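User: Second chain of the day. Same drill as before.
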Amino acid sequence: MKHLDLTGSTTVITGAANGMGADIARLLAGRGTHLALIDHDAAALATIAAELTDAHVTTHVVDLRDDDAVFAAAASIAEGHPRINALITCAGSSMLGDIDQLTMEEMRWLTDVNLWGTVSITKALLPALRAAPAAHITHLASVYALAAPAGRIPYAVSKFAVRAFSEALRHELEGTSVSVGAVYPAGVRTGIILHGRYAAAIDP
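Assistant: Same format as last time:
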């Protein structure tokens, strides 16, 4: 694999307004990386972008469940950032409740956010990443992509699927300029539980 240097190139980060996505943006901004930040929370996204005064930053308010919006944002990013070398998918949410409390709609909602949002932005940006001499895709999965606890069925299902997507995509892209990896964090104080959802059937 060719050496990957992010200095002066663009990294696209989803879920960039909070948690690990925001911290990764801060870290890369300090290393001279251009950033395209994606999140559905416009206010929080503007706040993090305002911090990064020393970096070239664009913000893109996108609901990753909306495929048309995702592909439109990817086209806009590719037009404004001619050299995209990395994609880091941090966007995700949580859903608490056991199988008797959760509805099918609630479980599908989380899968749309955590899995299909990840697949959609990856597919949309892949042509731009392929155009770079070297590029890397990092999917933020979870320790729950390795072991599934009770009360977290939709979250674990979505993260196991992100793991499978990452592994299959890595094999598909073997021999190209694009490499793929996944990260499996354990407990990180990101606020995901506070910002996530609970099954409506759970007693408040």
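The helical segments are 19-29, 42-51, 67-80, 104-130, 153-172, 192-195.

User: Great, on to the next one.
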